[in-house]
Design goal:
The longest helix is centred in the middle third of the chain and has 20 residues. This protein has five helices and no strands. The chain is 75% helix and 0% strand. The two termini are 30 Å apart. The chain is elongated, with a radius of gyration of 18 Å. The protein is mainly alpha-helical.
Length: 85
């Protein structure tokens, strides 16, 4: 069984980022990491308010945004620390 790294090297031998990924990383590197943390906390707070007000389905929908915001924050931090191509 081939190693995943070998498969990637065959698929993208020069190990270059795509044009779209490069443009996204260029823009996301400009956003402070705090934005994603506050967005995550904000979605949790809004979810709590919606739950208390009786909109349970909407509260669940909004509450599920928090992990996505945190993942965007991790991606942002990695782009800033490791750079982009």
């Amino acid at each position: 069984m081939e190693d995943i790294k070998e498969k990637v090297n065959k698929t993208n031998p020069k190990q270059e980022e795509g044009k779209v990924a490069s443009k996204i990383e260029e823009q996301t590197a400009k956003i402070p990491s705090d934005v994603f943390l506050w967005a995550s906390l904000g979605s949790m707070l809004i979810s709590l308010i919606l739950k208390i007000s009786g909109s349970s389905k909407t509260a669940l929908f909004v509450g599920q945004w928090a992990p996505s915001f945190l993942l965007f924050g991790i991606y942002n931090k990695l782009v800033k620390q490791l750079g982009h191509d």
